[in-house]
Amino acid sequence: MPRQRGAVIGGSTSRLRLLIVSDAWTPQVNGVVRTVATVADELRANGDVVEVIGPDRFRTFPLPSYPEIRIALAPRRRLAALVKAFGPEAVHIATEGPLGWAMRALCRHRGWPFTTSFHTRFPDYLQARTGLPPRFAWAMLRRFHAAGDGVFAATPSLCQELTERGFSDVRPWSRGVDLGAFHTVPRDAWDHLPKPVALYVGRVAVEKNIEAFLKLDLPGSKVVVGDGPLRAELERRYPSVHFAGWRSGEALSRAYAGADVFVFPSQTDTFGLVLLEAMGCGTPVAAYPVMGPRDVVVPGTGVLDWDLRQATLRAIACDRAVCRKHAEGFGWADCAAAFRRQLVPLPAGT
Length: 350
Description:
alpha/beta; Rossmann fold; six-stranded parallel beta sheet; 14 strands; globular
């Protein structure tokens, strides 16, 4: 059935029944899950009815080399039933996995407009893990998103890159930080560790380029908060590094606030929510001058340098109050409002 391009919802204040389909969902712990869950909660608080369909409602199998991530197996029939039961007025597809492709096919079959978002640089991840040339993955992603009525991207740098790579109707959609959950006090003193403390928070996986941090010759201590497929190997290879495992809530905030500098070695993230979380706790950032840090870190809140050691040493001197102040400009309420404003409604009577 041919699909008609729809108009955006814009400033409508009427209650909306929104369906979000995402292959990244609880119990996974990552930026995509945090973004989708928080935006859904913000919209619900403002009166919208939001349904998130994730792999937890389907038979799944573990992602090869990443067993903690479960992938929906042949989801289309059950997905169609769930969609029918909910009766959406707008559809957003958050990811390009099996659920995303199944929802895309369902929308195209019914002539429904939908929007998508670009969270993850899968071509770079696949190259890091398998050595496959990224051009094939980029072609697949272009095909996926071209069927929609707009692809949301988190930063100006990402919007520009996607446009240059042939993606159409790329729309800006920034991110937020929960300033009530991430704060400057209390702080984990890390009393048992030599100071200064350089902190990494995130997945311990090859695509995060974490070894660029671990092998730095730095004074004081290195701390890793997080888990992932490389943790056991890296703990064995870097015995002087303190691996603290996953933390959440108040414990995570204290870990950020107690560090002297937050080191972000990734060169593949499209945004990096952890950057805002660290700055929300007053902790300056050291990172490479790449997409994500380049759009989030401003002078006084951290240092971007291809020499990550120099960036780390210089960032320690940043004013923690300036870091917190900058983070206060990124609210989840504004993020959710921008997301909703750019959604496309289904035709009347659908």
